[in-house]
Structures are given as structure tokens and as C-alpha cells.
Write a structure and sequence with these properties.
heterodimer, A: alpha+beta, Aldehyde Oxidoreductase, domain 3, 4-stranded mixed sheet, 4-stranded antiparallel sheet, 4 helices, 35% helix, B: alpha+beta, Ubiquitin-like (UB roll), 5-stranded mixed sheet, 3 helices, 5 strands, 27% strand
Chain lengths: 146, 85
């Protein structure tokens, strides 16, 4: 089962895990990305493309399913306005064996940062706002999977 | 030829609009020449597209290189490098 979602509403991690686990898989690896509260950040805004963001995530999910033996995969990205502590992204990958679940989970979060149409803007307590620049390290991590 | 353009993140902010329909002049045949034309068209275009190396593009939903042809395209999206995850 592959579940992919792009949503402006809060990600309910417990409910998503229940849904994902319904099949009783051997091993589930998870990644939960949350908004960092450092540096007086008051808002993180995620811009996205109404069609292509979800399509890109779906393509990534299918690439992972082709590459590893996965029993279930959940890939959810929140978009719009978020506050420190909010969950931005949830990746759940399940397999009969842990190595494949862990590898798929890491692949998905690395590639999400470089391959999917999402843009972060940070706003701070003093009113400053800035679009986040891509990090070289993210591309290095993503290219390991080529 | 009419083409729909959509803008995202700081490209949208600098353009002041999310999308528009344009009639392409002769000679605008690929992403690179489209970006150059938009940069020369007006002041907001100059602000958004001053650094073409920082612009990424998708043609009808598929990521496209600067040399990709836009003849026959319905929609071109222009945006900065992505920063999700």
C-alpha cells in the first residue's frame, strides 16, 4: 500500500501510523520532520505547486517501491503556514526486514529535499522573512542514491 | 502562440502575480530564451530573472533544462531551486 498526501492541515502522526501499520508489517522505519524553533522563528511557510508537488512525491514513492521490497509506504508533506514544533513531513516505510525499510526511508527524505516542488520561507519575530536557500549538503546526500 | 506561465516562491513574489498568459515573440523557443525575454520585458521581470542560473523550470509538469524547447507547451512553471523535506 502506497499513501502519498500533500496537505495544509496538521499531520496526525499517531493516526497515520495506525493506518500504515494496519497490515502488520515486519519492520517499519519512520522519519518525522518538525519545524525548528531556533533563532526567533515564528512561522515557516511552505509553497507548493497544486499538481506537480503531489505528482513528484508519488513518483518518488514508486521509485522506492521499485528499488526495495516494501510492504507499505506513507509519504505526507504539509504545506502552507506552520509554527515551531509542527510536523512538516512524515515518512513511513515498511518491509519484512529492517534494512530495506531503513534504506527506503532515508532515500525518501533525502530525495524529498531535492526532487519535489516545495519551497520554504521563514519569518522571524522581528518581522524579517526570507526564502530558504538550498543546502549543498542536501544535494550530496541525494546524489548518493543515483 | 499563447503560453501559460506560473511562478512560485520568490519568483512569484518578485513578479507580483502567480500566473499569466503570454504571447511569445519570435525567437523565444526554449526555457533559456523565455527567461531572458521575461527579464528584459519589464522591471519586475528584471528583478525575478536577473540570475537565470537560479531559475528552474517545468514544462507541462516535467522538469526541464534551460535548453528544453517550449514549442507546443501549454504551461511552463518557473521557480527557484526547491527546499522541501
Amino acid at each position: 500500500m502506497i499513501r502519498v498526501a500533500v496537505q495544509p492541515s496538521a499531520i496526525d502522526v499517531a493516526a497515520e501510523l495506525d493506518l500504515h501499520d494496519a497490515g502488520g508489517h515486519g519492520a517499519t522505519a519512520s522519519f518525522i520532520g518538525r519545524v525548528r524553533g531556533e533563532g526567533d522563528l515564528v512561522e515557516l511557510f511552505l509553497d507548493h505547486h497544486p499538481a506537480l508537488t503531489g505528482a513528484g512525491m508519488g513518483e518518488l514513492a514508486h521509485r522506492a517501491a521499485d528499488r526495495w521490497n516494501l510492504a507499505a509506504l506513507t509519504l505526507i508533506h504539509r504545506v502552507g503556514s506552520m509554527a515551531p514544533g509542527d510536523t512538516i513531513v512524515l515518512v513511513l516505510a515498511s518491509s519484512p526486514h529492517r534494512a530495506e525499510a531503513l534504506a527506503a526511508c532515508e532515500f525518501l527524505i533525502d530525495r524529498l529535499k531535492t526532487d519535489v516542488m516545495l519551497w520554504k520561507r521563514e519569518r522571524f519575530a522581528d518581522g524579517r522573512a526570507a526564502w530558504v536557500e538550498p543546502r549543498e549538503g542536501d544535494h550530496g546526500r541525494a546524489e548518493r542514491w543515483d | 502562440m499563447a503560453l501559460n506561465l506560473s511562478y512560485f516562491a520568490w519568483v512569484r513574489e518578485r513578479m507580483g502575480i502567480a500566473e499569466e498568459s503570454v504571447a511569445l515573440p519570435a525567437g523565444v523557443t526554449d526555457i533559456a530564451s523565455l527567461v531572458a525575454w521575461l527579464a528584459a520585458r519589464d522591471e519586475r521581470g528584471a528583478r525575478a530573472f536577473a540570475q537565470p542560473e537560479r531559475i528552474r523550470a517545468a514544462i507541462d509538469g516535467n522538469m526541464a533544462a534551460p535548453g528544453a524547447a517550449i514549442g507546443g507547451a501549454r504551461e511552463v512553471a518557473l521557480f527557484p531551486p526547491v527546499t522541501g523535506g
